[in-house]
């Protein structure tokens, strides 16, 4: 049964509940939008944090209890203790530990976007049989044999302005140009509310350190990054869907190759790499349909 936008209103003004779990001395964070039905866990793109899912989560919570986690030192979460040894496999283990501490029990429903798609796949690898369904939105899972120049995204992340005079100044600049200009205003506001911290000076700082965002870009095509996820794709058969945007800036055939390797459907939807934050209504309707129990 296809869900309609009318069934999944995102107009409620209440804020999600902040989540915090301490494991081995580190603070792991996220957001709980509440809702009814099966738990659905959202895993975000690099550099954002769970807040960017705000409009999508509000739409989905008529069908699910929606929880978003901040990954690997991003959002409000503490950074890893040793960036030189950081691995995405470790982040997947942390996700499982946090879900257990939050009493979110398997079988899991996971939605992973970009980096979050890598981590969702590695969660499935780390806990065989624990994940029931995965919706992978433009997962940055690159084949081992892909001849692709080194990413320039890390350099861009390191140049990113980290401190601003106000949220309004950030919003105004982000709406003018760059990859965030096309976001639904509600997704941008969710990112700004939950992805920043207020300094003692009253200035606003990005909660995700640019160095962590840059590191993720640098290791994505490596053993520390997404290569183990590529290896695991065949295990997703019958349980996953890969979705890409028609105007993505990633290689055209990347997601088709992922789907072929995993033997799962590949769907194309309007939008770019950040389509869930560009078109939350359309994404929510599609995700609700994909996760609906068989028979409606």
Could you tell me the mean pLDDT? 92
Q: Helices and strands, in N-to-C order?
A: EEEHEHEHEHEHHEEHHEHEHH
- Biggest sheet strand line-up: 1-2-4-3-5-6-10-11
| Rg of Cα set | 18 Å
The major pleated sheet works out as: 8 strands, mixed
Strand residue percentage = 15-25%
- Structural class, from helix and strand content? alpha/beta
Low-confidence stretches: 1-12
- CATH H-level superfamily: Alpha/Beta hydrolase fold, catalytic domain
Q: At the first level of CATH, what is the class?
A: Alpha Beta
| Basic shape | globular
Measured distance between first and last alpha carbons: 5 Å
CATH architectural label? 3-Layer(aba) Sandwich
Q: What's the total number of strands?
A: 11
- Secondary structure tally, helices: 11
| Approximate helicity band | 25-40%
Indicate the CATH topology: Rossmann fold
The tally of structural domains comes to 1
């Amino acid at each position: 049964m296809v869900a309609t936008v009318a069934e999944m209103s995102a107009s409620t003004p209440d804020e999600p509940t902040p989540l915090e779990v301490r494991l081995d001395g580190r603070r792991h964070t996220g957001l709980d939008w509440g809702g009814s039905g099966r738990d659905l866990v959202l895993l975000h793109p690099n550099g954002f944090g769970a807040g960017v899912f705000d409009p999508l989560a509000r739409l989905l919570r008529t069908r699910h209890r929606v929880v978003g986690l901040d990954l690997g030192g991003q959002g409000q979460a503490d950074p890893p203790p040793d960036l030189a040894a950081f691995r995405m496999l470790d982040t997947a283990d942390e996700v499982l530990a946090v879900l257990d501490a939050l009493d979110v029990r398997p079988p899991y429903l996971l939605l992973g976007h970009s980096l979050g798609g890598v981590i969702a796949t590695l969660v499935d690898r780390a806990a065989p049989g624990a994940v029931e369904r995965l919706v992978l939105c433009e997962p940055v899972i690159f084949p081992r044999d892909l001849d692709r120049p080194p990413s320039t995204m890390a350099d861009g992340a390191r140049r990113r302005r980290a401190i601003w005079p106000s949220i309004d100044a950030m919003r105004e600049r982000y709406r003018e140009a760059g990859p965030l200009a096309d976001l639904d205003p509600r997704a941008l506001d969710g990112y700004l509310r939950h992805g920043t911290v207020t300094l003692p000076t009253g200035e606003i700082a990005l909660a995700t350190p640019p160095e962590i965002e840059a590191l993720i870009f640098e290791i994505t095509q490596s053993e520390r990054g997404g290569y183990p996820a590529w290896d695991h794709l065949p295990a997703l058969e019958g349980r996953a869907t890969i979705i890409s945007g028609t105007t993505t800036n990633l290689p055209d055939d990347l997601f088709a190759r992922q789907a072929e390797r995993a033997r799962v459907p590949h769907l194309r939807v309007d939008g770019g790499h950040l389509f869930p934050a560009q078109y939350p209504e359309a994404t929510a309707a599609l995700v609700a349909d994909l996760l609906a129990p068989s028979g409606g």
